[in-house]
Amino acid sequence: MWVKICGFTTLEEARAVAAEKIDAIGLNFYRQSSRYVAPANATQIAACFDDTISKVGVFVDSPPEQIRSIYETVPLDFIQLHGDYSIEDAIELRDLPIIWVHRMGKDGLTELKEELEQLKQADVKLSACLVDARVPGEWGGSGQKVDWSKLAAEYNFEDRPRLILAGGLVPENVAQAVQQVDPWGVDVASGVEQEGKKSLEKIQKFLRQAYRVLS
Q1: Counting Cβ atoms within 10 Å, is residue 164 exposed (0-12), middle (13-18) or buried (19+)?
Q2: Catalytic site residue 129?
Q3: Phi and psi dihedrals of 109, rounded to 5?
Q4: Which domains are delineated in the chain?
Q5: 48 catalytic per annotation
């Protein structure tokens, strides 16, 4: 199980959890997000974590050249593409490790299946595919759940990129989510926060529950 804690904004938050058994951190470069972090600050936050913990840059409609610049500057291990990125954008960035994001609504994975096929035909090899809940006006971090049953039934685990589950995950439901969906990884932001800040207690509980199903 790969666990990513997303949305670190301060050195204080980072230092508090740097010793925890997490697999990745998310650094949000979307200026309109409450979890936005400037590249210079992101570099300092990333330095709090050792090389075994992946650093993921979260982007919403940043142009490819800006993404590439931040990827090389911070530095990052993955780029996570939220927003309305096109297949052409992915082609331009295909030499970088991409986590492709799909916001799943009532229509399920119809749109995602088409995108993944187009990316495959364009020889874009994704590191993973993250599925979050579709919420009008939000690009992620909304705290809303995905339809786990529908996702598990529709995602082709054998022929598709590794699946990362996001959306509405909290310490109280992550074990159930992992059992029901069987994703490669999970991603959490608001679910481990207290009054808008990362909670060490919630992160520790989330990790225990996420890994519990593997014991």
Answers
A1: buried
A2: no
A3: -110, 20
A4: 2-212 (3.20.20.70)
A5: no
184 near 128, Cβ under 8 Å? yes
Catalytic residue among 77, 89, 132, 187: 132
Quote the tokens at residue 129.
């595919």
pLDDT single digits (tens) 169-214: 999 999 999 999 999 999 999 999 999 899 999 999 999 999 886 6
Write a three-state SS string for 35-97: CECCHHHHHHHHCCCCCCCEEEEEEECCCHHHHHHHHHHCCCCEEEEECCCCHHHHHHCCCCC
Assign 71 to helix, strand or coil: helix
pTM flag (> 0.85)? yes
Tell me if residue 55 falls in helix, strand or coil.
Answer: strand
Sequence-ordered list of residues with C-beta below 8 angstroms from that of 82, at least 6 positions apart, any chain: 30, 58, 59, 60, 61, 101, 139, 140
